[in-house]
Amino acid sequence: MAKQPIITVKNLVKKYDDFTAVNGISFEVFEGEIFGLLGPNGAGKTTTLEIIETLRDKTSGEITVDGFSIDKDTDSIKKRIGVQLQAAGYYPNLNLSELIVLFCGLYGIDKKPMEMLGKVALTDKAKSKYKDLSGGQKQRFSIATTLINDPRIIFLDEPTTGLDPQARRNLWELIKEIRDSGTTVVITTHYMDEAEVLCDRVAFIDGGNIIGIDTPDNFIDKLVATGFERKKQVKLANLEDVFITMTGKEWRED
Ligand code: ATP
Fold first, then answer.
1. 228 by DSSP, 3-state: which?
2. 158 Cα nearest atom in ligand 1
3. What b/e readout covers 21-37, taking b as 16+ CB neighbours within 10 angstroms?
4. Is 3 helix (H, G, I), strand (E, B) or coil?
5. How far is it, in rounded angstroms, from Cα 29 to Cα 151?
């Protein structure tokens, strides 16, 4: 079956005064995939993401999300997407369970906090405050909040930045589970290894331009077909594999 686009971006431009942060990019995100916007700091990833999320205005271009135009149907788009809040949005005196109830109230949706926390393996932290969580737990909680309204698409902006190797891998597994349960995932990252194992397709962004879109395998195969070879012999494992194997793969962030 042909893949259906769930997000279509055409000639998107964003200018901040006379600085062009996004320079006329076009791409599609297919239903049910993990799509990565991959690029260095300042490439325009967050700007692009926040425009699609209806949180920032575009300068020009056309965007359709799940069939709705961003110019006409902002409310319909908001109902269909899950967006991570900045950490400042988590009231310091509420525990995780209470925060979920608060968000449910904002969405007008009745969900059991334990069900939402269970999706991200945090039921044992239901009575903890957000500020007392580890980095990986904070990210998992933040992902739980994106799922409250049963979104068709969730957006994750650099979800693994600053996490240790185990917490990163746990988060990759969680994000794949979310994809496998039918939710499309759009993620930004500047970690190439992360995009390689996590994303079904990636778009490379540099200086506000998309310089390539494909699956990680196709990108690598095409490069290898040109005769490219890594200079150094690649070992069958790396230091991160050694660490993960020595310390175990289970949740370990307390
Ligand atoms: P990072 O990984 O550092 O977040 P990014 O790829 O997400 O990078 P953006 O945050 O989208 O990049 O920023 C793209 C460019 O636009 C940068 O040069 C940034 O300085 C600039 N920029 C972003 N927001 C604003 C703003 N509100 N006003 C002016 N310039 C901005």
1. coil
2. 2
3. bbbbbebbbeebbbbbb
4. coil
5. 15
Q: Which helix (H) or strand (E) holds 187?
A: strand 184-189
Q: What distance in angstroms lies between residue 248's CA and the mean position of ligand 1's atoms?
A: 37
Q: Which residues line ligand 1 (CB under 6 A)?
A: 16, 19, 21, 39, 41-47, 190
Q: How far apart are CA 153 and CA 148, in angstroms?
A: 12
CA of 79 to the centre of ligand 1 (A): 26
Q: If DSSP codes are grouped into helix, strand and coil, which group holds residue 230?
A: coil
- Strand 60-65 to 5-16 pairing: antiparallel
Q: pTM to 2 decimals? A: 0.91
Which residues have CB under 8 Å from 247's CB, separation 6+? 166
**Cα–ligand 1 centroid distance for 145 (angstroms):** 25
Give the pLDDT confidence of 218-236 residue by residue, as tens digits: 999 999 889 888 877 778 8
67, 162, 245, 249, 252 from 238: Cα distances, Å: 44, 19, 11, 16, 21
Structure tokens at 82: 């899950």
DSSP string, 65-112: ETTEETTT-HHHHHHHEEEPPPGGGS-TTSBHHHHHHHHHHHHT----
Q: Which atom of ligand 1 is nearest to the CA of 188?
A: 7
Element spanning 195, H or E: helix 192-198
pLDDT tens column, 159-191: 998 888 888 999 999 999 999 999 999 999 989
Q: Whose CA is nearest to atom 30 of ligand 1?
A: 16
